Amino acid sequence: MHITHLALATDVITSCLLDWTDDGFYYPGTSRDRRLSELWNSYRGWCETQDFALGDRAQRKLFTSNVLRPESGKYVEISEKTLNATGARYMLFWLSSIAKQIAEWSHTDQDMYLGGSGGVQFSF
After folding, report:
1. Domain extents in the chain
2. How far is Cα 20 from Cα 102, in angstroms, rounded to an integer?
3. What pLDDT was estimated at residue 75?
4. Could you tell me if 81 and 59 are in contact, meaning their C-beta atoms sit under 8 angstroms apart?
5. Secondary structure in 3-state letters for the chain
6. pLDDT tens-digit readout, 52-72
7. What tens digit of pLDDT does each residue of 16-52 get?
8. Model's pTM, two decimal places?
9. DSSP code for 110
10. What are phi and psi of 121, to 5 degrees?
11. Percentage of residues of the chain with pLDDT beyond 90
C-alpha cells in the first residue's frame, strides 16, 4: 500500500486539485491560487474534525499553483515532504467526501455518487 499511496494517490490528488480549480465552476475565486485556498480551508477543517490526530497530513504548499505546475513536458511530482504516504491515504478520504458533494451538487449521473441519495449538501 505504501507504493500505492506514494505513486497512485498523488496522481489522483493532484488531478482532482487541478481539475476542481481550473475555473470558478466548483470553487469561487479570481485565480487558481484563491480557489486552492478554498480547498485548503476545507481540507484543514476536515482534518481538525476527525476523531483521531492527523499528524501526517498534506502541507499547505500542496495547495499552490507553484507546486501543482509541472515542468515542461513532465508530470506533476509531489515531494514526500509535502505529502507523505500516510498523509496521502487520509487525504483520499477527504477527496472522496468532496467528490461526493460535487457529484450531488452538479447532479452527476447517479452511478457517480459515492453512496446515499440524501439531500444536496455543498459546504466547504
Report:
1. 2-112
2. 9
3. 78
4. yes
5. CHHHHHHHHHHHHHHHHHHHCCCCCCCCCCCHHHHHHHHHHHHHHHHHHCCCCCCCCCCHHHHCHHHHCCCCCCCCCCCCCCCCHHHHHHHHHHHHHHHHHHHHHCCCCHHHCCCCCCCCCCCC
6. 777 678 899 999 998 888 776
7. 999 999 988 888 889 999 999 999 999 999 988 888 7
8. 0.78
9. G
10. -130, 120
11. 30
- 93: which residues sit within 8 A by CB, 6+ positions away? none
CB 62 within 8 A of CB 82: yes
Helix 32-49 vs helix 85-105: crossing angle, to nearest 10: 110
pLDDT of residue 103: 82
Give the integer Cα–Cα distance in Å for 76 and 48: 27
Task: Please tell me the distance from the alpha carbon of residue 62 to that of residue 18, in angstroms, as a whole number.
Answer: 11
- DSSP class of residue 111 equals G
